[in-house]
Specification:
GO terms for molecular function: ATPase-coupled transmembrane transporter activity. The protein has 281 residues and is of the alpha/beta class. The protein has 13 helices and 8 strands. The chain has 2 domains: 2-70 and 172-278, Periplasmic binding protein-like II (D-Maltodextrin-Binding Protein, domain 2); 75-165, 3-Layer(aba) Sandwich (D-Maltodextrin-Binding Protein, domain 2), CATH 3.40.190. The strands form 2 sheets. The protein has a 5-stranded mixed β-sheet, sandwiched between helices.
Length: 281
């Protein structure tokens, strides 16, 4: 939604009312965004569910200020079109590529448990998301787990097919974050961010085709990829109890896999006051 809101000029308009100029920075993954946020190089970010939990555990005082959209099938497990793996249980003893510590890794963990398998039943291969499609195509792994838009790109290119998605397995929450110090000192700026984003959501609901075209142009993604992903999204800004529980599940997973550096109270991660001040959901 940030890409659409940027393309429509809503951020420039809302921040402009406060005499502020907007600078945009594109990142390929969440962890570098959290690092930039912690270093005062960013004020607002959109990430998946892993980076905010890892960041808060590392002592970075960040707050979830709103939901950035829920895609029920955001994560997926893919196999080659001619793969002998036909069901999840066929993965036993097989190599599965995924970025360790990512939402895709968490999805695999939950998917295996749902089918009565343990993490030790597969051979997890730690690969960065951009390298997964090639690993699957060259048969260096038997399956891969990743997230959108990689899933749609791999499907539409014919490199892989979805064996299982996160729908009904993992609630893949996306969130908007700010630094607590910045938010408290710049209430009007946070409200401007939320108002502009809500304008983007409203535009998408009124004009989905034009919105998808604008996102595709801004993201440099093929239009069919954007159409496939965005039609599934729930764009509401409100953070529900289920969203909080989903981030709690992430925290439990990172603790169990010994990725979490330090535990923290989950409530520390959320600040609903900004949404309440704007009255938007």
């Amino acid at each position: 939604m940030i890409l659409l809101t940027k393309a429509k000029g809503y951020y420039d308009e809302e921040f402009g009312k406060l005499g502020l100029k907007v600078k945009y920075n594109l990142f390929l993954s969440g962890p570098p965004m959290i690092e930039a946020l912690a270093g005062d190089r960013l004020d607002f970010v959109h990430t998946g569910d892993m980076p905010p939990v890892s960041g808060r555990a590392a002592g970075i005082d960040i707050k979830v200020i709103a939901n950035a959209g829920l895609d029920p099938a955001h994560n997926a497990l893919l196999v080659a079109p001619d793969s002998p793996v036909k069901k999840v249980n066929d993965l036993k003893g097989k190599k599965v590529g995924a970025p360790v510590g990512s939402s895709a890794h968490h999805f695999v963990y939950l998917l295996l448990a749902k089918h009565g398998l343990k993490p030790s039943d597969i051979r997890l291969v730690n690969l960065p998301a951009p390298d997964l499609a090639k690993a699957l195509e060259t048969k260096n792994v038997d399956a891969i787990a990743t997230w959108e838009p990689f899933v749609a790109n791999i499907e539409l290119s014919g490199t892989g097919k979805v064996l299982a998605s996160s729908d009904g397995v993992k609630r893949a929450v996306n969130v908007y974050l700010t630094r607590n110090e910045f938010g408290k000192a710049n209430l009007k700026a946070v409200e401007a961010f939320i108002r502009a984003t809500k304008r983007g959501i409203d535009f998408f609901r009124r004009n989905p085709k034009a919105a998808q075209e604008a996102i595709a142009a801004e993201a440099k993604f093929p239009l069919p990829v954007v159409q496939k992903i965005t039609k599934r999204y729930n764009w509401g800004l409100a953070v529900s109890d289920k969203d909080r529980q989903a981030l709690g599940s992430v925290k439990d997973f990172l603790k169990e896999t010994k990725v979490l550096k330090k535990d923290f109270e989950l409530a520390e991660l959320f600040d609903p006051s900004y949404l309440r001040r704007t009255g938007l959901k």
